Amino acid sequence: MSATQDSAHQSAARVSARRDRLIIAILVFTTIGFLDAAYLTYVHYKGFSALACFGAHSGHSSCVTVQSSPWAKIDGVPVALLGLIGYVGLFVSYFVTARLNGEIGRAMGFCIALIGFGFSAYLTYRELFSIHAICEWCVGSAVCMTFLVVLTAIRFLRGEPVTT
Amino acid sequence: MASRKEQKEQARAARLAREQESAAKAQRTRRFQMFGGVTAIAVIVIVVAIVVSSGGGGGPKGAHNGILKTGTKAERRLVSSVNTTLDKIPQSGTTLGDPNAPVTMQYYGDLECPVCQAFTLLVLPGFIKQQVVTGHVKIDYRSMCTATCHGAFSPKQSQKFFNLQQMAAYAAGKQDKFWNYAELFYHQQEAEDTGYANNTFLTGIAKQIPGLSIQSWQAARNDPALKAQLTADGNYANKASLSGTPTLIMSGKRGIEEVAGTYAGVYAFPSPSELNAAVKQVS
Question: What is the per-residue pLDDT for B273?
């Protein structure tokens, strides 16, 4: 093997390792966000005697205040459920990338993460300035979405190496 | 000097490199175009979601974010609906219902509390129809500072806001219109901790109540007996370590029951069936 070929192989290996790390990070944040949204959805439909929450507000936990607020639903559909669907969509986008079409899968992942990030930012604004209470679970999901929008954007813009 | 074969190979490699570069450039351009398209789609979806969410904002069904303009159709409809609910039910001070009702439900509330708003608008109308109109239960409203006292204002300022708004409602109670005042306040509640419940807002609510003498109401807002009642409510809530608002305490000949609830999927306030079960238990 020539020195040029050797260097090319090493470079390809480095690129591949970076891609693997990126995918792992995306999967980790998607999983955390998915579990977070699943918990909030479960609480919404089944009800807990107390929603685990550190903050207190109006004598209730601050999570209850946020979950009972008008912004906890969009046209009757709980935001937590929409978040859960978003995280499932991110898993599906990963599957599409791996098995069907890389470009479309990556675009889909970025699009979902961007929508999730944008709406999470709006909800955080509402928590701070309209509801005056913070739900840690919602903030947790917003943080996951923030990381995911950055990671999926990098992944989308990097793309795959061109082969001729 | 390179042989002809080597020259051909070099030319081929150069051509491949050019093709590869050109393909990469085309792919990059396509990807950036896609990136722009995807971003535009995402922005549209976010804007639609925010518009739909804001449209549904402002509280449960029937709530208005802020006091309605005098003489508007919406204001007339609200006033009429509150009057229809309370019209034939006796009121005395902060009590709604037959004074001899066998069961009393103490309702600890804060007029700025959004959970109280949801309870008052979603659960209370049905409960009033089923248990209060029929004479089984009377509701006695008590004050407990929660939403008003947990905001950005200093504790002293928050307490001042709380006293001002709760006293305004108690003053309407002097003319046996407390529940009209409280219902109208909850229906037009704004975002808590914003200091919106000032004199203009409170007088605006009072003016919506048919038959309420504004002059007598203004005078009653500083009534020492009402102030003492407000202080006593707060002292009891502190002493009993009530957890929040609304706290609903049902009492009858068979005992006293604090009604916890799971309505709306979270631990917030009792559902109609939980309230009815508590009435049955203490009756």
Answer: 85
